[in-house]
Amino acid sequence: MSGLRVYSTSVTGSREIKSQQNEVTRILDGKRIQYQLVDISQDNALRDEMRTLAGNPKATPPQIVNGDQYCGDYELFVEAVEQNTLQEFLKLA
């Protein structure tokens, strides 16, 4: 797979995960950065793929990947936005 992907879930009881996913997609949309949303709740193989790419067997959404390169999780995403290094974080620069 190529391009920017945001691993998320449409089925979660966690307000925190839902809020984090919404913030990531809102910021990407606001900056007109194209990405594919991958819903891991539809297929366990997608959840496993996300965790393998993240290098963490307990990783939870949102996780951000560009091609086969892991970019980071929500905390690292927010840090990149605050430091104005989002393009580098997303491996677009």
Automatic annotation (TrEMBL):
> Upper lineage ranks?
Eukaryota, Metazoa, Chordata, Craniata, Vertebrata
The name this protein carries in UniProt is SH3 domain-binding glutamic acid-rich-like protein
Say what the protein does. Could act as a modulator of glutaredoxin biological activity. May play a role in cytoskeleton organization.
- Naturally occurring in which organism (per UniProt): Odobenus rosmarus divergens
- GO CC terms on record? cytosol; nucleus; ruffle membrane
Q: Which PANTHER family match?
A: SH3 DOMAIN-BINDING GLUTAMIC ACID-RICH-LIKE PROTEIN, SH3 DOMAIN-BINDING GLUTAMIC ACID-RICH-LIKE PROTEIN 3
Residues making up the signal peptide according to the UniProt record: none
* Keywords for the protein's UniProt record, in alphabetical order: Acetylation, Cell membrane, Cell projection, Cytoplasm, Glycoprotein, Membrane, Nucleus
Q: What's this protein's family per the entry?
A: Belongs to the SH3BGR family.
Please give the InterPro entries that the UniProt record associates with this protein.
Glut_rich_SH3-bd, SH3BGR, Thioredoxin-like_sf
Q: Cite the Gene3D superfamilies for this sequence.
A: Glutaredoxin
Its predominant location is membrane
Name the Pfam families for this protein. Answer: SH3BGR
Localization (cell)? Cell projection, Ruffle membrane; Cytoplasm, Cytosol; Nucleus
